């Protein structure tokens, strides 16, 4: 049993022994049950019948990164909210009083540590997962530049630059907080940050309840 | 290769890509692309727009587009523009402000207060009639119904259409699910449901769609021009159900690639899409629902909406490359 962060392209192939267990950005987290499943998945062409030498990109994850930390991937608040009945957790009393069934699950799991041995502080795994995701974003963009694969809107990509590639890898490895990883994910990789972080960075107009300026969604490198 | 099948008018004939074989419900326009606006993830609402080209299953982020960040708001579309009812700025926030994008220029249109809702609403269900001339806006914690004229780009006065017998919508931001076809539109949530007949603008009584007792209102409906529509039950359910969109009888049920709800469903010509949904988390998961078979295919990054970690509870509009109109092909949008 192993877990991988995968980037599929037009369709997600059906492979015996492969199951999608989580998703974020434009990646899927897959569970792979056998060696044969892995060899089939890793050999799957990214763009079948198009003559492009590229297979489905994969980065191995730990089980905790795949199943626990991935649930916090999009958060910069210290908690996520979950449907208590779906996840088998006790609902927040104030939520219950309001007729709702949501509960807050803290990244440190402080509020559920006494309830379950599975409740653990997922902070380190989340940071590790976010680094791996940024590396996959970077390496895929750079591979596509090397292969001269056009953007989805059919515009050409910038030429490949090994120095830029190496510098960005170093930058990603240096990031050690959730906030920094999410900020760089927007500023350099073009994936919009949370309202929570935008507010704390002074990028959110709380009067209009919208961003102060339009987000730049393109890779900034 | 010629295809033969049931057309919206209920007869069989040629359905080639460029055919404008009469002005049936199916062939009045030929849908070729669509747009997904806004949505949210983990209390962060978005305001960007993604374009999906249906022939290649390719979704491209067009950037921040609508006036405000918004989620839990349904939208509508005509032949040329999309609308989001409401776009007041927030996650499920109530308001009357309406944003609109031109599907011709793919730019935000300058706000016109004539578009705005007459009744403040949270989440809405919009029903579009068969000629895409009127949009009916239902639910969102009010039983009042707003009526929008696509032709004149104007919201009718309050009370132009009778109140919805199904009430104010479900418990989550007043959301109804629902769908629309050639003859009627349907809304439902938590045992309440009703249908609106286009020709008479009259509502059925409450309970017209008995299956609504299984629907929480945030598992959305996917319409088609084939005489049927699709709906799930909750926002973590796998099974999709297919209904005759006139008699509301269940035709079939089948599994989907994801256990999801709060879908951004985009209507197409021969297939539709789910472009972002909720499955315990808000995701960019996408799938393509073929109308001719009870099958759906999971899309990868090419098909998925982009710009953020995930998005559910946004809205979609669909555009046509060919508009046959009432008297044959009179205009085209290109693209």
Task: Walk me through this protein's architecture.
- The complex is a heterodimer of chains A (about 220) and B (about 325).
- Chain A is of the alpha+beta class and about 220 residues long.
- In chain A, strand 2 and strand 3 form a beta hairpin.
- The mean pLDDT of chain A is about 95.
- Chain B has about 325 residues and is mainly β.
- In chain B, strand 14 and strand 15 form a beta hairpin.
- At the A-B interface, strand 2, strand 5 and strand 8 of A face strand 5, strand 7, strand 28 and strand 29 of B.
Descriptive labels:
heterodimer, A: 221 residues, alpha+beta, four-stranded antiparallel beta sheet, 8 helices, B: 335 residues, mainly beta, 40% strand, globular
In short:
Chain A is an alpha+beta fold and 221 residues long. Chain A contains 8 helices and 8 strands. In chain A, strands 2-3-1-4 form a 4-stranded antiparallel beta sheet, with helices on both faces. In chain A, strands 5-6 form a two-stranded antiparallel ribbon.
Helices and strands in order:
The complex is a heterodimer of chains A (221) and B (335).
Chain A: E1 2-6, E2 18-24, E3 27-32, H1 35-42, E4 58-61, H2 63-67, E5 79-83, H3 84-87, H4 93-97, E6 102-106, H5 123-146, H6 162-174, H7 178-187, H8 195-200, E7 204-205, E8 210-211
Antiparallel strand pairs in A: 1-3, 1-4, 2-3, 5-6, 7-8
Helix pairs in contact in A: 5-6, 5-7
Chain B: E1 4-6, E2 12-14, E3 29-37, E4 40-41, E5 44-45, E6 48-53, E7 58-64, E8 70-71, E9 74-77, E10 81-85, E11 90-91, E12 98-102, E13 107-108, E14 125-128, E15 134-138, E16 146-149, E17 154-155, E18 177-180, E19 184-189, E20 192-197, E21 202-203, E22 221-222, E23 228-231, E24 240-244, E25 250-254, E26 265-266, E27 271-278, E28 282-290, E29 296-299, E30 315-323
């Amino acid at each position: 049993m192993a877990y991988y962060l995968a980037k599929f392209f037009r369709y997600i192939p059906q492979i015996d022994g492969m199951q999608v267990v989580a998703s974020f950005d434009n990646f899927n987290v897959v569970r792979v049950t056998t060696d044969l499943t892995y060899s089939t998945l890793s050999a799957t062409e990214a763009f079948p019948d198009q003559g492009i030498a590229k297979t489905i990109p994969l980065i191995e994850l730990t089980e905790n990164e795949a199943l626990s930390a991935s649930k916090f991937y999009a958060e910069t608040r210290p908690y996520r909210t979950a449907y208590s009945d779906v996840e088998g957790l006790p609902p927040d009393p104030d939520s219950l009083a309001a007729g709702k069934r949501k509960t807050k699950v803290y990244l440190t799991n402080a509020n559920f540590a006494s309830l379950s041995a599975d409740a653990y502080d997922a902070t380190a795994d989340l940071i590790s997962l976010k680094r791996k995701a940024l590396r996959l974003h970077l390496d895929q963009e750079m591979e596509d530049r090397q292969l001269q694969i056009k953007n989805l809107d059919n515009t050409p990509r910038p030429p490949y630059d090994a120095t830029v590639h190496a510098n960005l890898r170093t930058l990603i490895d240096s990031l050690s907080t959730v906030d920094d990883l999410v900020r760089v994910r927007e500023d350099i990789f073009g994936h919009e940050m949370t309202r929570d972080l935008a507010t704390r960075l002074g990028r959110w107009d709380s009067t209009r309840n919208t961003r102060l300026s339009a987000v730049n969604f393109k890779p900034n490198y | 290769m010629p295809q033969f099948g049931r057309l919206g008018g209920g007869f069989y004939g040629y359905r080639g890509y460029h055919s404008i074989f009469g002005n049936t419900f199916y062939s009045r326009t030929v849908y070729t692309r669509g747009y997904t606006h806004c949505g949210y993830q983990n209390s962060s609402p978005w305001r960007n727009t993604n374009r999906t080209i249906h022939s290649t299953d390719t979704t491209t982020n067009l950037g921040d587009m609508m006036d405000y960040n918004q989620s839990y708001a349904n939208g509508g579309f005509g032949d040329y523009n999309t609308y989001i009812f409401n776009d007041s700025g927030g996650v499920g926030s109530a308001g009357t402000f309406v944003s609109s994008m031109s599907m011709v220029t793919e730019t935000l249109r300058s706000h016109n207060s004539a578009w705005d809702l007459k009744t403040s609403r949270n989440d809405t269900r919009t029903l579009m009639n068969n000629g895409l001339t009127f949009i009916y806006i239902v639910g969102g914690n009010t039983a009042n119904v707003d009526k929008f004229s696509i032709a004149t780009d104007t919201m009718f006065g309050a009370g132009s259409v009778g109140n919805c017998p199904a009430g104010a919508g479900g418990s989550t931001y007043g959301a109804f699910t629902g769908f629309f076809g050639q003859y009627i539109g349907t809304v439902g949530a938590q045992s309440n449901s009703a249908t609106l007949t286009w020709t008479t603008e009259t509502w059925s009584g409450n309970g017209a769609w008995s299956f609504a007792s299984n629907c929480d209102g945030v598992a959305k409906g996917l319409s088609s021009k084939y005489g049927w529509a699709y709906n799930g039950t909750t926002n973590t359910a796998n099974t999709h159900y297919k209904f005759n969109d006139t008699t509301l009888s269940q035709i079939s049920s089948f599994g989907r690639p994801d256990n999801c709800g709060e879908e951004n469903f985009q209507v197409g010509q021969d297939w539709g899409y789910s472009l972002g949904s909720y499955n315990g988390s808000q995701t960019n998961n996408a799938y393509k629902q073929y109308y001719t078979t009870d099958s759906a295919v999971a899309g990868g990054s090419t098909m998925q909406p982009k710009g953020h970690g995930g998005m559910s509870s946004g809205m979609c509009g669909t555009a046509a490359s060919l508009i046959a109109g009432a008297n044959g092909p009179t205009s085209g949008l290109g693209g």
